[in-house]
């Protein structure tokens, strides 16, 4: 992302080894999206398990993304449903939303989903 001109931090990693990106400050959504599109293949190669999912896992993630969208709309945010076949951040990356606005941040606090994979083994 930095090669694309975006001030992007190095990731930290959670206990399972998944990358976490803290303190990402997106100053220009259009430039960020263009850079992300140019870097997406690198991310897919680095984290294939995040993209090539078991159908049951993918269905749970898609359902969670749909529930999140509905909740955001219930909070008054004009929020789209996820793109078909996508979930999480990827499902909403092209949405015309000011993700930094106070209204959207407050709705995120209310709608932030629990991990949809916690109950798969039940």
Helical/strand content category: mainly alpha
Please work out how many helical segments DSSP would assign: 5
Query: Strand order, biggest sheet?
Result: 1-2
Element string (H = helix, E = strand)? EEHHHHH
Helicity level: 40-55%
Shape estimate: globular
Radius of gyration computed on alpha carbons: 15 Å
What's the β-strand tally?
2
Tell me the span between the first and last alpha carbons: 39 Å
Any idea how many domains? 2
Strand content: under 5%
If you average the pLDDT, what whole number results?
Answer: 76
Largest sheet: 2 strands, antiparallel
Low-confidence stretches: none
What's the quick description here?
Helix content is 46%, strand content 3%.
Summarize the topology.
Layout: E1 12-13, E2 19-20, H1 29-46, H2 48-51, H3 55-74, H4 89-92, H5 102-111
Antiparallel strand pairs: 1-2
Would you write up a description of this structure?
With 122 residues, the protein is mainly α. The protein folds into 2 domains: 1-50, no CATH class; 53-122, no CATH class. 46% of the residues lie in helices and 3% in strands. It is built from 5 helices and 2 strands; from the N terminus they run ββααααα. Strands 1-2 form a two-stranded antiparallel ribbon. β1 and β2 form a beta hairpin.
Q: What would the keywords be for this entry?
A:
mainly alpha; two-stranded antiparallel ribbon; 122 residues; 2 strands; 46% helix; 2 domains
């Amino acid at each position: 992302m930095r090669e694309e001109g975006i001030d992007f931090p190095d990731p930290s990693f959670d206990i399972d080894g998944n990358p976490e990106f803290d303190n990402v400050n997106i100053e220009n959504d259009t430039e960020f999206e263009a850079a992300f599109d140019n870097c997406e293949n690198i991310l897919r190669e680095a984290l294939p398990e995040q993209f090539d999912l078991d159908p049951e896992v993918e269905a749970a993630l898609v359902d969670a993304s749909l529930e999140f969208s509905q909740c955001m709309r219930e909070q008054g945010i004009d929020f789209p449903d996820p793109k078909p076949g996508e979930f999480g951040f990827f499902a909403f990356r092209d949405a015309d939303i000011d993700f930094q606005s106070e209204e959207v941040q407050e709705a995120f606090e209310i709608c932030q989903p629990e991990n949809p994979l916690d109950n798969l083994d039940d």
